[in-house]
Design brief:
The complex is a heterodimer of chains A (about 325) and B (about 350).
Chain A: H1 2-5, H2 7-13, H3 24-49, H4 55-58, H5 64-68, H6 79-85, H7 88-118, H8 127-134, H9 142-152, H10 160-167, H11 179-206, H12 211-219, H13 224-252, H14 256-262, H15 273-282, H16 287-311, H17 316-319
Chain B: H1 2-37, H2 44-75, E1 83-84, E2 87-88, H3 98-104, E3 107-109, E4 113-117, E5 124-128, E6 132-135, H4 148-179, H5 185-197, H6 200-205, H7 207-217, H8 223-247, H9 251-259, H10 264-275, H11 277-293, H12 296-301, H13 309-317, H14 324-353
Antiparallel strand pairs in B: 1-2, 3-6, 4-5
The chains are: A mainly alpha (about 325), B mainly alpha (about 350).
Chain lengths: ~325, ~350
């Protein structure tokens, strides 16, 4: 990594390359546009979260000026935050989100490591081909994959999950109408969506595991399991941890799966936090509350990622300089 | 062209290995079998390999089953099921392409009459172009084809500006970050890396703010405004990606060009950009796919007339009863090109995935 990030430094040592500060001008347009569409909405969200904004008052005025005054919405101080934080619905959503992070990350990790071990095993023939096949879902648009999985968990005659149950003589289940069956469906889908990413990373880590250590352990009489625990795991720990952090962040921000499956239902029971904020604002016209919820989610995910980038040295190449 | 050539070469290579793999395996198996017969090798090892391979193959098939299943649903006339009274059926009873015809709809170029006035006279030349019927689905008994082409057009008019805008923002920035030293360079890089890791969820959380601002400016149902948004969100990841590509180009090439007296702009256009062609192609694909596949923001901002393909796909599902065969055909027609692009670009993408502090 360091070799990559220090190219700039090496360039600095080349006497005839220009290195004037004007180069910042090449970066500024991108930075400016990005900030306009990321930073500005954040600030605006902060503003909205302190008002009683709803479509009726927010869009009352028109033109550029009413954007800054939040239409005719009035300032209500911390009322949105108080009402959100005292709402059991919020805590339900908050809890189910963390539960989802825990269960889906565990599922994703175990599934991906199993797959990665299988497609790197010495005993398996045609590994390369299998590897490029199984990461195929990564190339599919998320909305495609998720609607297909919604079909799989459909309780209609078409639903694959019920067909498979039916073929072994088990009665059909209304997957998306039960709280925990729906939650399970989210987990399975999320695992299927993100296993290719983790498999790619784990496979490339497994290929770096030293053969000699394995051989040495074999000579010492270590079985498969103890070799896995004492040789393989320590050498793939870092990359897998990295993937787990990213995938945990993805789970925390999962929106499409609950939204497409049953809008976080049944009866708002499984609204993951991002869905909760979105629905509160755009389905129930409570913009102020929605903004407050979204901001709380952003603060959580921001802190989580910042800690990881700092502590886990994810951006090593950058922070080193 | 060289990129396309390279990609075609790699595809060909892949296809060759794919075709030759069974032959090789067969040869291997025969050889092993002979050795076992001759008593030169114990059958335990090969048996284990066979078992492991079969197991791995089963795992692969299980993982890819949903894709197979949706394909079969599209081919069946009713969106049928793999489980019927006759037990499990892996191929639909009466496979038909009708659903795909429904998706594509009529392909008819209507007749036009072109009038050319001859200057200075009252005369005009009239040309009649013939009506071109490439595909008339009503002949196959399909009355109301889908609005696929309409959605497709919307998607194109969103994606193409997205690519143009984001390339204009990303390429200069990547060059500067890779090749120049300037104040705030490290800070910009750090922010970009941080932002590549905070994914789409942030965008959805910010959607409320974005939506309000867009509505107040009256641009919420504007495809160009959506493109600008997509381009903006694509900036950090793609700038970072292209920067790492450009970092791989040795500085000695530039030095040589400068010694030969080339001005900076020629160094950039004739050394840096051609050599980072693969990186540019990856960024091109990624930014294009941003506009092509994004769903939530498009669904929130756009009105029915401007629906893009993903939103159009979802609008089929949100109805109470879902026409599964048609839905599947629509979904596959939407996803297949992307899947092919992904297959071609797989190596680059996998290379790009290990970009962030993996070693160490």
């Amino acid at each position: 990594m360091s070799a990559i990030s220090t190219v700039g430094d090496r360039v600095a040592d080349v006497p005839f390359l220009e290195k004037r500060d004007l180069s910042l001008l090449l970066v500024l347009p991108g930075l400016f546009v990005f900030a306009a569409f990321m930073l500005f909405p954040v600030l605006y969200l902060v503003g909205i979260s302190f008002t009683n904004a709803a479509p009726a008052n927010l869009f009352a005025g028109d033109g550029a000026f009413s954007v800054l005054t939040f239409g005719e919405a009035t300032f209500v101080g911390l009322r949105n935050y108080v009402s959100v934080l005292t709402d059991p619905q919020f805590w339900n959503s908050f809890g189910i989100t963390w539960l989802f992070v825990a269960t889906s990350v565990a599922l994703k990790l175990s599934l991906s490591i199993t797959i990665a071990l299988v497609v790197t095993s010495d005993r398996v023939r045609g590994k390369r081909l299998m590897r490029s096949l199984i990461v195929l879902p990564m190339g599919l648009p998320a909305i495609f994959t998720i609607t297909v999985w919604r079909g799989i968990f459909s309780s209609a005659q078409f639903g694959l999950a019920n067909q498979l149950l039916g073929s072994v003589g088990i009665e059909a289940i209304a997957w998306l109408s039960g709280r925990w069956t729906a939650f399970m469906a989210y987990n399975v889908t999320e695992a299927w969506l993100s296993y290719p990413f983790m498999v790619i990373i784990t496979v490339s880590a497994l290929q770096d595991v030293s053969e000699e250590l394995h051989e040495a352990a074999k000579v010492d009489g270590a079985g498969y399991l103890s070799r896995f625990l004492h040789v393989t795991v320590p050498s793939i720990k870092r990359p897998v941890l990295f993937a787990a952090i990213l995938t945990a962040a993805a789970s925390f921000q999962q929106f499409l799966v609950p939204y497409v499956f049953n809008q976080g239902g049944p009866a708002r029971a499984n609204e993951l936090i991002v869905v909760y904020g979105y629905r509160e604002a755009l389905s129930f016209s409570e913009y102020g509350r929605g903004a407050a919820i979204s901001l709380i989610a952003v603060v959580f995910i921001g802190t989580f990622m910042w800690l990881n980038v700092k502590r886990g040295r994810l951006a090593e190449g950058v922070s080193e300089q | 062209m060289s990129i396309l050539g390279g990609m075609a070469g790699k595809l060909g290579e892949g296809a060759r290995t794919l075709v030759l793999a069974p032959v090789e395996t067969g040869r291997d198996a025969v050889y092993t079998l002979r050795r076992i017969r001759a008593g030169e090798q114990s059958p335990r090892g090969p048996a284990k390999s066979l078992l492991a391979t079969v197991g791995a193959l089963a795992l692969c098939l299980a993982l890819l089953f949903p894709i197979y299943w949706i394909l079969m649903a599209a081919l069946s006339s009713t969106g049928g099921s793999i489980y019927s009274s006759g037990g499990l059926a892996l191929v639909p009873a009466n496979p038909t392409l009708k659903s795909f015809l429904w998706v594509v709809g009529d392909l008819i170029v209507p007749a036009y009459t072109v009038l050319l006035n001859i200057p200075g006279t009252e005369l005009a030349l009239a040309f009649h172009t013939p009506k071109l019927v490439l595909l008339d689905v009503s002949r196959y008994g399909i009355e109301n084809p889908s609005a696929f082409k309409h959605f497709l057009w919307n998607s194109i008019t969103v994606s193409v500006p997205t690519v143009l805008i984001s390339m204009a923002l990303v390429v200069p920035a990547a060059y500067a970050l890779s090749r120049r030293q300037f104040i705030l360079r490290r800070k910009v890089l750090f922010v970009y890396v941080l932002m590549t890791q905070v994914g789409g969820g942030l965008g959805i959380a910010l959607l409320i703010g974005l939506y309000t601002v867009y509505v107040q400016f009256g641009i919420n149902d504007n495809k160009l405004a959506l493109s600008v948004y997509y381009a903006a969100t694509a900036v950090p990841f793609n700038t970072w990606l292209l920067k790492t590509y450009m970092d791989g180009i040795p500085t000695s090439y530039e030095e040589a060009a400068i010694v030969d007296g080339a001005p900076t702009w020629r160094v950039v256009t004739e050394v840096i950009l051609p050599l980072s062609a693969a990186g540019l192609a990856t960024v091109f694909i990624f930014t294009f796919l941003t506009g092509w596949t994004e769903f939530v923001v498009a669904q929130t901002l756009l009105g029915t007339q401007n629906y893009t393909l993903p939103v159009g796909l979802y609008s089929l599902v949100s109805e109470y009863s879902i026409p599964w065969a048609r839905f599947s055909a629509f979904a596959l027609t939407f996803a297949l090109p992307i899947m092919l692009v992904y297959l071609v670009a797989q190596r680059y993408i996998e290379g790009g995935l290990s970009f962030s502090g993996m070693e160490g």
